[in-house]
Amino acid sequence: MGFLSRKSKSAPVPTEEAAHPIEEELQSMEAAVPESREARDDEGQAAQPAGPVAEGQAVSTAGPVAAEGASGLTRPDTPSSTPPAEDAAEVSDEGSEEPARMMARDLIAPSRHQGEERAEELEAPVKHAEVIAFANQKGGVAKTTTTLNLAVAFKESGYRVLCIDLDPQGNLTMSQGIDPDKVEKSLYDVLVHDMPIREAIQEREIDIAVASIDLAGAEIAMSTKIGRERSLEKALKEVSADYDFVCIDTPPSLGLLTINALTAANKVIVPVQCEYLSMRGLVQLQNTLKMIQDNLNPEVKIEGILPTMLDSRTVHAKEAVEILEENFGDLVFQTRIRKAIKFAEAPVKGSSVLKYDPQGNAAGYYRDLAKEVLEHESA
Predict the structure, then answer these.
(1) What pLDDT, on the 0 to 100 scale, is given for residue 130?
(2) C-alpha span between 50 and 39 (Å, rounded)
(3) Domains by residue range for the chain, with CATH
(4) What is the pTM of this model?
(5) Between vectors from CA 224 to CA 220 and to CA 229, what angle results, nearest 5°?
(6) Stretch 149-162: mean pLDDT, rounded?
(7) For 156-169, how does the pLDDT look when each residue is reduced to its tens digit (9 = 90+)?
């Protein structure tokens, strides 16, 4: 019989139910398009007849039933809300250019903590202080004088400045009217006992982290400390955002205290007395700085070489400056710090030369130096 009458009320039920051809078709489409499995299941359920179906035939809910070839698929004569399987396959093929199926993690909304982390990433970076070490293993070349007066000149220009007295002699501390023998907390406690550096800072013309005679034993006390070369660098992280410049006065040696200063510094200013013996120390300082760059602080560099204690009346001083310029070129500052009695008088009053004699030539030298450093910084 070519087709079944719609009036037939019963049909023989096979003893073993074989797979229906439309189910095989749906399974093949589901395997090809796994993301639409739920939609296919819904369509398959809508297309299933209410009653049992004999092998090799399909029953449609709309229109008469017609046999079409050996496949047994039927096409309704009137439109249906559910497209047949062949049309669904065509739609699936045409929709193959759609974006890939979303994963479960893509559907989850970001948590509140993730939003806070993103907001923190967008915040402007915190500005850190420019750390300048004043170093020369030869003593008596005006390291302390340069550290203090340049720092005060920076402050006159509106910058926040911290001075660090890393010299066990405590000359920078005394130059601000503080007795190193009477301080209760000093850089010794910061470097050896990891005390917060804020506790060693006192306010004078500028903020100063004071020294004491105990610093003379700091190198021995730190000899067994892990990471001893970075003790000052770690301590400065606490206050780095509070200042624009940190100026470090170093002892006249290339020991552990000076290494700490060079490791923590971004730049090095080398005061050099305009004499032959003073300039010989530059070679040793360069070798030490090269080792620091290779092993501890690759960012540190020489900001400039500063001729100090210049007596322009002598031929030897002029020749010394010429030798510096021939060997170091642009590294030599254009500013010259000439000899002046005010540099010796100001520490007696516990002040910088800029406060002691603000209109004098000595104060003008360091204002010129500050201007030169700031112009180089901006450039």
Answers:
(1) 95
(2) 20
(3) 130-378 (3.40.50.300)
(4) 0.67
(5) 80
(6) 96
(7) 999 999 999 999 99
